[in-house]
Amino acid sequence: MRKKRFMLGKLTVLLGLTALMIDPALADPALLPAPAPTTIRNVFDITRDGNKIGTDIVEIEKQGDTTNVKFTTEISVVIMFVEAYRYEHSGLETWTGGQFTSFKSQTNDGGTKHNVVATLVGDKINLMSDGKRSEVPRTVVPASLWNKAFIDHPALFDAETGAPISIQVKDMGDEPFVFHGAKIKARHYKITGDIERDFWFDGDKLLRMKMLGSDHSTIVSELQP
User: Fold this and answer.
1) How far apart are CA 61 and CA 69, in angstroms?
2) How far apart are CA 122 and CA 77, in angstroms?
3) Which of 42, 96, 165, 200 fits 208 for a cystine, CB–CB 3.0-4.6 Å?
4) In whole angstroms, how far apart are CA 110 and each of 9, 32, 91, 211?
5) d(CA 151, CA 142)
């Protein structure tokens, strides 16, 4: 009888182990491997008055409640076969649980270089801009403008220089939109204030950004199909 009870107990353990192997959800979550990160790579063509002058690459990596966004922008304006202007920008931005937590960038704007580092510490963001340290409220986010966070954050800091930026956002509603030959509807947002831009989104995906350059040329950044 004792041997029979022993065999039944052993069988129960084996069945339990088999269930864990078949259904990992029954196992201790701490022992399960973390889900693999998902990455979205968006490439934007940048044009000036219809002529391509550069590329903006935005790579969005999500793992759990953490989102890392990597930016790489290169612009070259050539006039009469001579490069009149070059712009290079790279950055990394992190959000955790819907809260902006860190940012760093390096920029070469026509020979003028900038470095910006921002880190959330407690209820403040420590901001280091070209060697100068300051503190800003945790509600301030970088003006990288890769998503619609600027709608709820009218106080920003410049992603290139770290300078404070104040904007007003107007929701222009859904508009007919021609995207690489296809007619769709996109949400149009207009921002004014320290910077002026027009944005068109399909859901949370940025499709197009338009602005006026310092020489009053029209600069457009449009997502590649």
Assistant:
1) 6
2) 42
3) 200
4) 76, 49, 17, 19
5) 13
- For the record, the structure tokens of 95 come out as 């959000």
How far is it, in rounded angstroms, from Cα 180 to Cα 222? 10
Give residue 96's identity as a one-letter amino acid code: T
Tokens 């770290």: give the residue.
162
Tokens of 155: 């106080």
The one-character DSSP state at 33 is: P
Determine the structural domain holding residue 10 and report its residue range: 2-31
Q: Give residue-wise pLDDT tens across range 156-188.
A: 999 999 999 999 999 999 999 899 899 999 999
Which residue shows structure tokens 């290079």?
Answer: 88
- Amino acid at the residue 185: K
Cα dihedral angle (34, 35, 40, 41), rounded to 10 degrees?
A: 50
118 plus 11 within the same structural domain: no
Name the pTM for this structure.
Answer: 0.81
Q: Could you give the CA distance from residue 155 to residue 125 in angstroms, rounded to a whole number?
A: 13
* Six-digit token string for 209: 């950004």
Q: CB within 8 A of 183, min separation 6: which ones?
A: 176, 177
92 and 45 in one domain?
yes
Q: Which two tokens stand for residue 108?
A: 């070469």
